[in-house]
Design brief:
The chain is of the alpha/beta class. It has 17 helices and 14 strands. An 8-stranded parallel β-barrel has the order 7-8-9-10-11-12-13-14, surrounded by 7 helices. A 4-stranded antiparallel beta sheet has the order 1-2-3-4, sandwiched between helices. Helix 3 packs across helix 5, helix 5 packs across helix 13 and helix 7 runs parallel beside helix 9.
Length: about 425
C-alpha cells in the first residue's frame, strides 16, 4: 500500500496492485495477506468494506504474480495465484514478514543449487518462485503454530524445519472469496483400510494401477486376479484426433470394466467420459496439470463433481502439489519416481526421497500414487516402503510373459 499510495480493500484491489507493482520492473510480486483484509480495512478511515472481504476471514491468503508467458498450469506465476492456509488465531506473529522473505530466498537457493550441481530430486530442481512461495508459506505457518511469548507483547514466529506436514502446507485458492471446495469421491489405501474400522465406507484403491491404451489390454487386466483399478491412456494418433473414436474407446473400456467389477480411470479425456450415459461412465478421471488447468478454466471441475466421478491428479513440483491439494482429489500421484521412457516429462526423477516428502505433505486421508519407471517388484517394494499407497505401472505388466504371476508379485511386493 505504501508503494502504491492507496489502500487495498478487496481481492480485486490486491490483484490490480500486484499488476501495478509488476509494471514497476520487478520479476515477481507476493502481496502478503496474513492479517486479512477485514483487519487492515476496518472502515475507521471512512472507506467501505467490500461485501466479499468477510469471506477471507479464517484464511491467510497471499497473492503471487510474476512475469512470463507460461500459463499452462494453474501454478504458473503469470496467471496470478492466491496461496491459502488456514489462519492461526495466535498473537505470536512477530517477524512473519522477515521470516517469509528469508524462507523464499532460501527455497530459491535450494532450487538453484540443485540445478547447478545436478544433485537433488526432481521437485527440488523444479523450485521456482511460485514453489518457493508455497514452501515459505508452509514454513511460516508452522512457525506461527509453534510461536510462544518471550518477554512482553507478542512473541516471535518460531523457526522450525523444512515443511513436513500437510496441516501447514498451503493450497491454491481458485477464488479467494470462496471457502475450500468439497472433496471428490474419497478413497483409502488398502493398508489404511486394514487398520481402521472407521474407513469401511470408503472405497479402497488397489495396490497397483496398470496404465494401458487398448481394449485388448483392458480385457486382459480385468480377467487377471487382484486387479481392481485400471487406467486408460489413449495414445494412438488416429484415435486421439477423432473425438468420436475417443468416446467409443472409453465406452467400450467402461463396459468391459463394469462387466468385471473393475474401476476404470480415464486419462485426460474428461469431456468424452462425461458425454457417456450414466450407466456407462468410467469410475474416475486422471488429469495432468496442463489438462487440469484447461478443465478448471472451462468449468469442468464442477461438472466432474456433479457426475460424482473420482479424480486423480498428477504432481511433479511443490507448486503443483498446492494446486492438487486444493481440489481435494480422490488421490494424488507423484512422478516420475525413476527415469522413464513411456512418456516425455519435463521433470527429473523424483527418487524415493521425494516420495517421503510427499507422504508428509499429502494428508493421510488422500492415497498417494507413485508413477514412472516402476518396472519390477523390487522398485514397487522400494516406493511402497517410502510411503506410496498405490503404484502405477505400464511395462511391469505389458512387457511380461506371465501376466498373472507378474501382477501377483507386484501386489505382494
Amino acid at each position: 500500500e505504501a508503494l502504491l499510495h492507496r489502500k487495498l480493500t478487496c481481492p480485486e484491489d490486491v490483484e490490480q496492485g500486484a499488476r501495478d507493482l509488476l509494471a514497476m520492473g520487478v520479476q515477481s510480486v507476493l502481496i502478503k495477506g496474513g492479517h486479512t483484509l477485514v483487519e487492515t480495512n476496518d472502515g475507521t478511515d471512512g472507506s467501505a468494506i467490500a461485501p466479499d472481504v468477510n469471506a477471507t476471514l479464517g484464511y491467510a491468503q497471499d497473492y503471487f504474480l510474476s512475469r512470463g508467458s507460461d500459463t499452462d498450469r494453474m501454478c504458473d506465476g503469470p496467471r496470478g495465484v492466491w496461496i491459502r492456509n488456514k489462519r492461526y488465531d495466535s498473537p505470536h506473529t512477530h517477524g512473519t514478514g522477515c521470516t517469509l522473505s528469508s524462507a523464499i530466498a532460501s527455497a530459491l537457493a535450494l532450487g538453484h543449487l540443485s540445478r547447478e550441481t545436478g544433485h537433488g530430486t526432481g521437485a527440488m530442481r523444479a523450485i521456482q518462485a511460485m514453489d518457493a512461495c508455497c514452501l515459505a508459506k508452509a514454513y511460516v505457518t508452522a512457525g506461527i503454530g509453534q510461536g510462544v511469548q518471550l518477554g512482553k507483547g507478542s512473541g516471535p514466529v518460531a523457526h522450525t524445519k523444512f515443511p513436513s506436514t500437510h496441516e501447514h502446507y498451503p493450497t491454491i485458492a481458485f477464488n479467494p472469496t470462496h471457502a475450500n471446495p468439497p472433496a471428490f469421491l474419497p478413497m483409502i489405501s488398502s493398508q489404511a483400510a486394514s487398520v481402521s474400522s472407521s474407513s469401511t465406507k470408503k472405497i479402497i484403491l488397489g495396490k497397483i494401477l496398470p496404465i494401458v491404451s487398448t481394449t485388448e489390454w483392458i480385457t486382459k487386466l480385468c480377467e487377471t486376479k487382484g486387479i481392481t483399478d485400471v487406467q486408460l491412456r489413449i495414445k494412438d494418433p488416429q484415435i486421439t484426433s477423432n473425438t468420436t473414436a475417443v468416446t467409443q474407446l472409453i465406452a467400450e473400456s467402461s463396459t468391459i470394466c463394469s462387466r468385471n467389477n473393475v474401476r476404470l480411470w480415464i486419462n485426460d479425456y474428461w469431456k468424452e467420459a462425461l458425454s457417456l450415459p450414466v450407466n456407462n461412465k468410467p469410475f474416475g478421471i486422471h488429469l495432468g496439470q496442463e489438462d487440469l488447468t484447461k478443465c478448471i478454466d472451462c468449468g469442468g471441475i464442477a461438472k466432474l463433481r456433479e457426475a460424482q466421478l473420482a479424480l486423480g491428479i498428477s504432481t511433479h513440483s511443490f507448486g503443483e502439489l498446492s494446486v492438487a491439494s486444493a481440489l481435494r482429489p480422490s488421490y494424488i500421484s507423484l512422478g516420475p519416481i525413476y527415469d522413464t521412457t513411456s512418456k516425455d516429462v519435463n521433470f527429473e526423477a523424483q527418487t524415493v526421497d521425494t516420495v517421503r516428502k510427499w507422504r508428509e505433505l499429502v494428508g493421510d486421508d488422500v492415497p498417494l500414487v507413485g508413477i514412472g519407471g516402476i518396472n519390477d517388484a523390487e522398485r514397487v517394494k522400494e516406493v511402497r516402503n517410502a510411503g506410496v499407497d498405490c503404484v502405477a505401472v505400464i511395462g511391469a505388466v505389458t512387457k511380461v510373459e506371465d501376466l498373472d504371476t507378474a501382477v501377483d508379485c507386484l501386489i505382494k511386493a
